[in-house]
Amino acid sequence: MAGDPFDELAGPSGEGPHPRSAAELAAEIASALGEPAGRVRVEPDDRGMAWLVRDGRRLSWFNLEEAERLNADRRAALVRTFRDLVRRIDELAPTVEGLEVGRSYMVEYKNPGIRRTFRVKAALRSVSELRPGRGVSGAGWTLRFESRPRFGAPGAFEVDSSVLVRIEPA
Q1: pLDDT by residue (tens digit) across 130-166?
Q2: Are β-strands 133-134 and 57-63 bridged in parallel, bridged antiparallel, or unpaired?
Q3: Long-range CB contact pairs, 78-81, < 8 A, 24+
Q4: Burial of 159 (0-12, 13-18, 19+ CB in 10 A)
Q5: C-alpha–C-alpha distance, residues 97 and 26, integer Å
Q6: Of 9, 161, 156, nearest to 70 (Cα)?
Q7: Which helix (H) or strand (E) segment is 27 a member of?
Q8: Which of 125, 134, 115, 129 lies closest to 158 in space, CA to CA?
Q9: CB 135 within 8 A of CB 60
Q10: How far apart are the C-alpha atoms of 169 and 68, rounded to whole Å?
Q11: Sheet with strand 104-111: strands edge to edge
């Protein structure tokens, strides 16, 4: 997504991170979430990149080297942004995991391109696995639906969990 305040974290930069930075960042995020140490980890990867992992689930792949270069204010903002990412996934997980493939749902979702909210009755065809984000955005699920309009052919469409407003059985 263009214009993200942490775009530099979405890709590698070439040098390796400081060895303690992963543990320090993980501790800061866990503290912001109010969770015990060890539940959130930052696992270094290759080319200065790292995974934000919580309860064994990869949530984001980001540039750890760039994260350790941030000044104190931007680092605090980064920690809050990762905290919000984890909370959003926590809020959506029970809803997404409780969906039944084949069942009809009333789905409300935003289309950011035209800044409009749509409400559609459709049958759920599939739910993706949790997709880790790159940097501080992009983590979530993709829901695939099929709508059967009164006139015309059925149509399939996908809704990313990041634009989901509401979903309930129809």
Answers
A1: 999 999 888 999 999 999 888 889 899 999 999 999 9
A2: parallel
A3: 78/6, 78/9, 78/136, 79/25, 79/28, 79/29, 79/32, 80/32, 81/5, 81/6, 81/136
A4: buried
A5: 26
A6: 9
A7: helix 21-33
A8: 125
A9: yes
A10: 45
A11: 155-160, 142-147, 116-127, 104-111, 164-169
For the chain, the residue count is 170
CB atoms within 10 A of CB 13: 15
- Cα 7 from Cα 2, distance rounded (Å): 8
CA–CA separation, 6 vs 81, rounded Å?
Answer: 9
Tokens of 108: 């409300």
| CA-closest candidate to residue 61, choices 13, 133, 5 | 133
Question: What pLDDT, on a 0 to 100 scale, did the predictor assign at position 142?
Answer: 97
pLDDT at 10 over 60: yes
Tokens 């009809």 belong to 104
Tokens of residue 28, six digits: 């800061």
pLDDT of residue 2: 47
d(CA 13, CA 91): 32
Tokens of 45: 């990867």
Mean pLDDT taken over the chain: 89
Tokens of 66: 């760039």
